Amino acid sequence: MSVDQYRATFRGCPINASRHKPESIKATLQRLADATGDDEQIDNYGRGELIESFEREVAALLGKEAALFMPSGTMAQPMALRIWADLARTDYVALHATSHVALHEHNSYQVLWQLKGCELGESHRVPLLDDLKAAARDPLAAVLLELPMREIGGQLPQWDELVRQSDWARAQGIKLHMDGARLWQCPAAYEKSLADIAALFDSVYVSFYKDLGGIAGAMLVGDADFIARAKVWQRRVGGTLYALYPYVIAAREGLAQHLAAMPERRDNARWLAEQLNRLPGVTTWPAVPQTNMFRLHIRCNPPIFLEQGVRWMQQHQIGIIPPPYRVDDDALHCEISVGNAFDLLTREQWQEWIREFGEAMLTDNQ
Amino acid sequence: MSVDQYRATFRGCPINASRHKPESIKATLQRLADATGDDEQIDNYGRGELIESFEREVAALLGKEAALFMPSGTMAQPMALRIWADLARTDYVALHATSHVALHEHNSYQVLWQLKGCELGESHRVPLLDDLKAAARDPLAAVLLELPMREIGGQLPQWDELVRQSDWARAQGIKLHMDGARLWQCPAAYEKSLADIAALFDSVYVSFYKDLGGIAGAMLVGDADFIARAKVWQRRVGGTLYALYPYVIAAREGLAQHLAAMPERRDNARWLAEQLNRLPGVTTWPAVPQTNMFRLHIRCNPPIFLEQGVRWMQQHQIGIIPPPYRVDDDALHCEISVGNAFDLLTREQWQEWIREFGEAMLTDNQ
């Protein structure tokens, strides 16, 4: 039984514990057509009221001067670092070992963007002020901080610690860039507004298709000069598309639909982690989620778990444990990010299915 | 009267001599929803039958092994040149002065992609074999040839000349890359198939939103090894989007709808140029279009022409002369690319409107 088959079965379940309710392409396009005003005009190479008004909306939400819609975060983030590097006349940038830039972009920040990466802290924990100070032995242009840190289960630094890091970086003339792909999860955790959090940073990247259920797309947010520079780089990198409206409309709808629900989803994530931690062999990371997401360590015989899991999902049409991102000899590693798919069942129903799942899957599998 | 006002008025006309019939965002999204099968699955980071089957379709159409859907040509073309440069272990590439790469990308091929550009021929004419030989005094990895050459009125090299250039480049071990943004116009001009033309090149970029009426998007086409390398670079540059389906579906529909009409549109372009050349002060470039597009030189007093043009279009709701891309003291420079908007009137009707336009606009304006 392959992970691919498990993944396909999980995604085929009409009810999933992780992410959003499934929606067909046809239904999404129909929904976006319905959500579009009769007189809304096509954007053209980044210009036009449709895209510019949404950029203004997100900039205002984050308390910044300007914003620029981008096709992807992989495009947006090294671009932000390149801008800060050019202004500082140094190519050094500090980033955590689990940063998307370091892990998932084929070293683009080095090979294409000609930046030099400096280590920031240790891979299993959030960076601390002392880690920033250690990285700054090289002449840093910028520090990239991810909030929340996806690869370590959505952990966040303590608020006071984050403020200290921001104060220190400002005093050094080092720019702080936020990987805010899932920034939408942070206000509930910090009890601060999006603008309060963004105020600690010089530039912010946010994503529209993860928490917010868009099709794809991202934004860079910062001051007017930073965004003016980003527009030139966006053209250079081929990200100034002839039209971006399907992504813009989906992002706009997603923001309107999902943002207000983020605190409740965080509560659901904490509740869900508590339930799953009661199953034999299951441990969440962190034990109590700080945000809307967490990771799972499942002690099991992976081939047996995957095979039984496919059968269980086929029988019940419910996906509880997402496909593993890592398979060890004696364990699976998975990730849950609570979206609106969780709302398809009540907590009582989830509790019952989790108990049933644990009995079927995990009791004689230790 | 500004060019922007003229442009807005031209675009607001329900009938235009250039490009395609206007369609609202809402109508486009609705049309794409209708064109999507109930069971079509969302693509994910470039994978999935929806996107892969369309890549296979276009690769087959061009007689190549493989293809890769891209958000933009600005992303695709320097990427192709970078791949050839890496394989050849030299950064020199030859490109015409009017190449999109040289003119419209803020020198991305140098600044971001770290390529070195060599001049290729003269800016007002198609490159000849001797121009390739002259450029090859530097150790060239690749030569970029645009078919047809947009900035010089859609001109094409003679077929035999193109074959000689291809033969010579192959013999030298220099790769030929085609900017085929408007390749769809070439079969009628050469009386050759798309595959015949693409066979002269090692890599081809095609676009889906110009002749074919898609939303945005492009493809790189070549052999399997080239496309495998392009997939890595696409990830690096941030072009491997979480989902591309709105562009893919629009491109697929556009290819099905527009490709067969390209020869007829070339005939219409030649007929239209003939009519316009009869107007006082109007000259097309070339005098007889080779493809579906041409440029216009209009001898006039530009402020007066623009003001009268707006009034004429407001009165008749027909746009004949597109907004100028260049304004001189005594002339306007415009471009017409014949799409399906031309089909909204018969040739007889166009002839009558062109005569009327000439009388109103150009007779006392010389």
Short structural description:
2 copies of one chain form a homodimer. Chain A is of the alpha/beta class.
Largest interface: A-B, 50 and 51 residues
pLDDT averaged residue by residue of chain A: 97
Overall structural class of chain A, as computed from helix and strand content, comes to: alpha/beta
Number of strands of chain A: 13
From the spread of the alpha carbons, the general shape of chain A counts as: globular
Number of helices of chain A: 15
Q: Enumerate the spans of chain A where pLDDT stays under 50 for 5 or more consecutive residues.
A: none
Helix share, percent of chain A: 40-55%
Instruction: Spell out the helices and strands of chain A N to C.
Output: HEHHEHEHHEHEHEHHEEHHHEEHEEEH
Strand content of chain A: 15-25%
Could you tell me the radius of gyration of chain A in angstroms?
21 Å
Oligomer: homodimer
Q: What topology, given as strand order, has the largest sheet of chain A? A: 2-8-7-6-5-3-4
Summarize the main sheet of chain A.
Answer: 7 strands, mixed
Distance between the termini of chain A: 19 Å
